[in-house]
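Re: Re: token formats

Sure, here are both.
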Amino acid sequence: MSRQLRVAVVGAGPAGIYAADILTKTDLPPSVESVTVDLIERDPTPFGLIRYGVAPDHPRIKEIVKALKRVLSNPDIRFFGNVSYGDDLKLDDLQQFYDAVIFATGARGDRDLDITGIDLKGSFGAADFVSWYDGHPDVERDWPFEPDATSVAVLGVGNVGLDVARILAKTAQELLVTEIPDNVADGLRRNATTDVHVFARRGPAQVKFTPMELRELNHSPNIDVIVHPEGFELDEGSMDAIHASKSVKLVVDVLQNYVAKEPSGAAHRIHIHFCQSPVEVLGEDGRVVGLRTEVTELDGTGNVRGTGELVDWPVQAVYRAIGYYSDNLAGLPFDLAAGVVPNDGGRVIDIDGSALPGAYVTGWIKRGPVGLIGHTKSDAAQTVELLLSDLDNLPAPAQPEREAVDTYLAGRGLDVTTWEGWEKLDAHERSLGESHEHARERVKVVPRDEMVQIARS
């Protein structure tokens, strides 16, 4: 006898939405008549890091939302927003209603950096800064810019590090054409930064940002990009990487062009330093007053070794952009070192090494915060394939009726937002943008209760 497959996906960012899309489009085995998917999301809005992790001056990347919207318009996929896994429901609760649960909660926290002084006032995690300038409802409305913080350090050379450097170096006026909320615009007007120093532990062939991100650094007439020649080294391992990857070659070519380019005299500067490993954040009276780095040298393999030479940089703030870190999920094992849920291709692996029945992961909670957004499609496909291969062994839910979970959430007194509610909020934010003096595509609503009220109106 055929059955209806019910799947919950926890997390409505790209990873979760791709998983839902693949589940509803995949050829099902004869034992399954149809599949319906419910996306459970702690934010009142869908799209995860597309909404709250992509810099506001990157509208091209936000175009991905158009494709994700088409997925969420599928009647076999429902969106339950403003529902927090671990607080409002747990794995045991979900397994009452679903055959399987896929966790796609991503990574929103900052990976720790264990050096002296990292906890000083003026030392920040890049993820927190990104959440602030992207208007996430659960962070403080004001960013603590210091009036004398004219020089700042960014530790890390991935795309997030470049985003942070670019937002710090741009003027608030330049960003008024984007979707930034008013509180972010007000905060950026108080930003005194004139020089942003980006530090790479290794050489130019080992950076993690993409060529496009790098080129976009100098698109602002108010910013000079200065790549310092000290530490700009290419060893045998670097040359191998250049020959093996077109992307690496493009990045190194762009960096070499920056090295040769004379500064134009712009009011703000982004400096990129290679072969400098942070060893201490320097403080005075509890505040950041500098950064100490150790000069490194490439060892022939693309890795580096320390030279023992120390350099002190007079900066008044430090932003670490050394990687995102996932939240530990209630009822699931967690690898603290890797920041992921232990899994085998997407099947959650319990502490005894056995598969946890009906529990799966995809996206960054599965493989760590690496790769671009498009990589999550193949990741989701692998997880879905495993889920479908496990159908005969999945425990049947006690309440498989689709409306059962609606009744449960209502009984908990939760102010759940829906896809129709998102469409209301989306229209409202777009109307704010149209009426704004700078005629923007949208202006984000920031307070959670206001978003929920608009969505449930």
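Second one below.
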Amino acid sequence: MAGKVAPKAAAIPQLGWNRVRPARVVLVSGTESFLAERAMRMLRDLLKAEDPSLEISDLEADAYGPGELITLASPSLFGEPRLIRATGVEKCTDAFIAETLAYLESPAEGTYLLLRHAGGVRGKKLLDAIRGGLGDGVEIVCAELKKDSDKLDFAVAEFALEGRRITGGALRALVAAFSDDLAELAAACQQLIADASEEITEATVEKYYSGRVETNAFRVADVAIAGRYGESLILLRHAIASGADPVPIVAAFASKLRTMAKVSGSRGGSGQLAQQFGLAPWQVDRARRDLQGWDDAGLGRCIEALAETDAAIKGAGRDPVFALERLVGLISAAGKTP
């Protein structure tokens, strides 16, 4: 029986969003629109820095008319460099595919063609040709940041780029508060960079984003797991009163308890366990700290109660808030029953 054939690797460089470099053809792919927009701005700024006379033209691939690309790529009277930005390539017309493929056979001198493709199968023939080397381009991959560790790395890079110091606790609090929206996380990082004059600590994050942080689901979970029942109950009630949905609060508890269960009883360094369980090293260290005072029986009882609470808030119970408060009480006691 023949072996399974591995997918063919791209013939052109595939770079991260923060490693943008000019090329005659730049394919910006992936579903994370915030990173894609930033990568596109970075390319524009790089080209502008090389030559301030850069001419920038935009076309919509999903509303493309015959001849648009060749018209925009035609040499100007004074020979200024050109950047042509084509958006909506994932919804492009047949004419766009055909004319772009023809253009890539011999790209215009002094012209940079940027193609933004947000995912899907439309335009696959064009993407395959570019990735196969037609046009001698590069691909900027802007994949969605799904893991907390990826978002943490993003925030770390934001502060490192500006040479600012931020504590690990402050980073975790910031990422937890803005984990649902990468654009909001980036904006929060930039505000702290611009306004905070000294080292950024958890107190700094609390000062700027106290409402967001205090009502955050992970904040409630962290305080309960630390055994501070009264404080966790106040935070929970404040979150509910502020309009927070019980579902993501239970999800935060589930995420924390799952990580604790993975790490419990495991031996090895943080890096080794992180690789084994698909976590970041700081998550392993945090889980080990969280497990102090816990035993396997208590952890098991909390996981069972978590499943019951999840069912209760999704319709199986009459009072989801009471179910949450009961869960907070059990977790604050490390799963120990009276």
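Residues 1-7 have pLDDT under 50 and may be disordered. Residues 296-316 form the longest helix (21 residues).
- S.
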